[in-house]
Automatic annotation (TrEMBL):
The gene is murE. It comes from Cardiobacterium valvarum. It catalyses: UDP-N-acetyl-alpha-D-muramoyl-L-alanyl-D-glutamate + meso-2,6-diaminopimelate + ATP = UDP-N-acetyl-alpha-D-muramoyl-L-alanyl-gamma-D-glutamyl-meso-2,6-diaminopimelate + ADP + phosphate + H(+). Catalyzes the addition of meso-diaminopimelic acid to the nucleotide precursor UDP-N-acetylmuramoyl-L-alanyl-D-glutamate (UMAG) in the biosynthesis of bacterial cell-wall peptidoglycan. GO terms for biological process: cell division; cell wall organization; peptidoglycan biosynthetic process; regulation of cell shape. This is UDP-N-acetylmuramoyl-L-alanyl-D-glutamate--2,6-diaminopimelate ligase. The lineage of its organism: Bacteria, Pseudomonadati, Pseudomonadota, Gammaproteobacteria, Cardiobacteriales. The modification N6-carboxylysine is found at residue 213.
Length: 495
């Protein structure tokens, strides 16, 4: 991608008046001092535990702009209050606001973001940015974060614009909203999937988590797609937390409606069987162009698994409708969508059993995958899960409680223990169990999987939860290569 050139004053004008003597042309921008050279502007912001200037060792730079206070900034460095909050806007200006010439869909919520943005990338032929990776699906880059830093976001958008990509679907994490990573992104559609307990090691409590998520909808988006089956989704509308200029499309798989919604996308006659999911797609448009209520219905069949994928497909349909896709085209589009790596990913076993690899790593997500898979499983449902180390301790017993309640047999194992003792993590989880019948502890993780697979009979399934698409296990501070899918397939091919 060609690098633009901008004057320093144009980049900083809204935030920092610049002495004419300090004017210069900028050939690149970075937040990483390891990427500095004489043509590059270094934006040195304050982080959670450290300041970027802590890592400065005299590298050459076109200019250094830093976030005050800092005890001894480099000579000539320019102080810019709240620089961290402005990084996205500065980067957007540097790259000529790529999102303004694209359709950018931002999905936030606890669960469903990865599947939704993957489905939208499939449906539109555009790019995605999220946990699964960054870019068009045929050329995905590995993801470093669910939502990367603001400079990388704008750099990706600019590169995709240059390649002629028109639509981008992006996961917007709570961390990204709290840290202003998506500032400078002009979203066309914001989607709220749901909200449940997660990231409480970062947020003060569930209310703080919700308020951060709500920030996406405080801006005047052209469209907001809101799951009104979720209590927090309804609250966004009840408390007028969606900007008044935004056209609201409500989504429900439970027959709900909301008076603030201009349109509703819903599902009726939902059925799940061994082949997948089936439902009637319903669309009511009440207020567009001041026309009378219009209503459309069509059957949808999908080879995807799990009840929650009905909601993911409804969110996909709502976004496509907002983008003026004819309703009559949507059932066929939904039918072609294939599964997302590590999201209810089925690996068939020769005896008619199945292993289901899923990213579920919260209590609500574990309930959803187990409830969602149950109608597809005529036999016994097993669950293998673990809890991350150095993360929210409070969700550990809740996850065990969910597994014990919704699975026939539960196996608790490791999942990124990090610097904690794995036995202590498992002990925390076991506090959520009752009589502990049909609950086993097996570790390490690959041994747990190898122990379960030969016990499965025809019609049985095991949900292997927590890692999904991830290909590593974090032990201590080191990432070791590990994959649930590889473990299952290696077992299948072993003598």
């Amino acid at each position: 991608m060609s690098q633009p050139k901008k004057s320093l004053s144009s980049l900083l004008a809204p935030y920092l008046p610049l002495d004419p003597a300090a004017e210069r042309m900028i050939g690149a921008i970075t937040t990483d001092n390891r990427q500095l050279d004489a043509a590059t502007l270094w934006l040195a912001a304050r982080g959670v535990n450290h300041h970027a200037l802590d890592y400065y060792h005299g590298e050459p730079a076109a200019a250094i702009v830093y976030e005050p206070p800092y005890p001894a900034p480099p000579a000539g460095a320019l102080p810019c209050p709240d620089l961290g909050a402005h990084l996205g806007d500065i980067a957007a200006h540097y790259y000529d606001h790529p999102a303004r010439t694209m359709t950018v869909i931002g999905a936030t919520g606890t669960d469903g973001k990865s599947s939704l943005v993957h489905f939208l990338a499939q449906a539109t032929g555009g790019a995605m940015l999220g946990t699964i990776g960054y870019g068009p699906l045929e050329a995905l880059e590995a993801a470093s974060h669910t939502t990367p830093d603001p400079l990388r976001i704008q750099q990706h958008l600019a590169a995709w614009r240059e390649r002629g990509i028109k639509t981008v679907a992006m996961e917007v994490s709570s961390h990204a909203l709290a840290q202003h990573r998506v500032s400078g992104v002009d979203f066309t559609i914001g989607v709220f999937t749901n909200l449940s307990r997660d990231h409480l090691d970062y947020h003060r409590d569930l209310e703080d988590y919700f308020q951060v998520k709500a920030r996406l909808f405080a801006q005047p988006l052209p469209y907001a797609v809101i799951n009104i089956d979720d209590a927090h989704g309804r609250r966004l509308l009840d408390d007028n937390l969606v900007h008044s200029a935004t056209r609201i499309i409500a989504v429900s798989s439970a027959g709900n409606r909301h008076p603030r919604a201009a349109a509703t996308v819903s599902a009726g006659n939902i059925a799940l069987d061994a082949d997948g999911i089936h439902f009637t797609l319903q669309y009511e448009d009440a207020k567009r162009d001041n026309h009378a209520v219009s209503s459309h219905n069509a059957p949808v069949t999908s080879h995807l698994l799990a009840r929650f994928n009905v909601d993911n497909l409804l969110n996909t349909a709502a976004c496509l409708l907002a983008l003026d896709t004819p309703f009559t085209d949507i059932p066929a589009i939904l039918a072609t969508l294939h599964g997302v790596p590590g999201r209810a990913e089925r690996i068939r076993l020769p005896n008619g059993a199945a292993a289901i690899v899923d990213y579920a790593h919260t209590p609500a997500a574990l309930v959803n995958i187990l409830q969602g898979i149950r109608p597809h499983v005529p036999g016994k449902l097993w669950c293998i899960f673990g809890c991350g180390g150095d993360r929210d301790h409070g969700k550990r017993p809740l996850m065990a409680q969910a597994a014990e309640h919704y699975a026939d047999v539960t196996v608790i194992t490791d999942d990124n223990p990090r610097t904690e003792n794995p036995a202590d993590i498992i002990a925390d989880a076991l506090r959520g169990t009752g009589r502990r019948e049909n609950i086993w502890v097996k570790r390490p993780r690959e041994e747990a999987i190898r122990w379960v697979l030969p016990q499965l009979q025809a019609g049985d399934a095991v949900v292997i939860a927590g890692k999904g698409h991830e290909d590593y296990q974090i032990i201590g501070t080191t990432k070791h290569h590990y994959s649930d899918q590889e473990t299952v397939r290696t077992w299948l091919t072993s003598p």
